[in-house]
Amino acid sequence: MKCLVVDDDAAICDLIQHFCKKEALISSCTKVMDGKQAIHAIKTEDYDLIILDYHLPDLTGANLLDLFPTQIPVIMISSELDFGIASYNYEQVVDFLLKPLNYKRFSIAIEKVHASKNTIIPIQESKQERLVVKDGNESIIVKIEDIKYVKSEGNYVVFYLKDKKVMTLQSLKLLATTLPSNFIRVQKSFIVNLNFVERFTGDEVIIAPTAIPVGAAYKNQFQTALEKWIK
């Protein structure tokens, strides 16, 4: 993985680069020291991971998270725990490291990033589409047609199937790119399979026995998708 470190503390950048040299999963580690440099770096190079400090001299980590491509996983770092908790509101954030950094915890975060990139693998077949979902050390083959809806829970997603639930480490936004067009997002935390929708009240989608609230920003999009699907 190509890593970009964004921190205005040169000593922290050097420490992270030292940690990265110990990680077989990381092929290179580039450091920049402010938000503008980070934006330029992202535009000119392809990175697989961003390690981002919350406090920067020109932009906050939150500002940059809004600007960075959502498909690039991010590890947030800060000396203040409150910022770590807030960072999990962003789907691309895989982990948070509290300063002072230590290598053992850093290595665990890198493993999480690696796992998030490899937890869901689409399999294209002539008659049927499936996903290979990693649940811990176990790989589970999930038929896409059996997925009723998917719910985001922190850094994990839960697949609600016809007969069971499966949880895996994955971003809901990234997952949405692997699912077919009958899967529609109805709010920040839910994607539903139109094949299982029994009723839409305007405020809720009913997939028995569950009533899923529809976010205001998603209502028109969902209504349009549902009408097209029915036709």
UniProtKB/TrEMBL annotation:
Cited InterPro entries: 2C-system_Tx_regulators, CheY-like_superfamily, LytTR_DNA-bd_dom, Sig_transdc_resp-reg_receiver
Pfam families from the UniProt entry: LytTR, Response_reg
PTM annotation (4-aspartylphosphate): residues: D53
Record-level Gene Ontology MF annotations: DNA binding; phosphorelay response regulator activity
Keywords from the UniProt entry: Phosphoprotein
Response regulatory domain sequence ranges: 2-114
Superkingdom per UniProt: Bacteria
SMART domains found in the cross-reference section: LytTR, REC
HTH LytTR-type domain: residues covered: 131-228
UniProt-recorded name of the protein: DNA-binding response regulator
Gene source species: Putridiphycobacter roseus
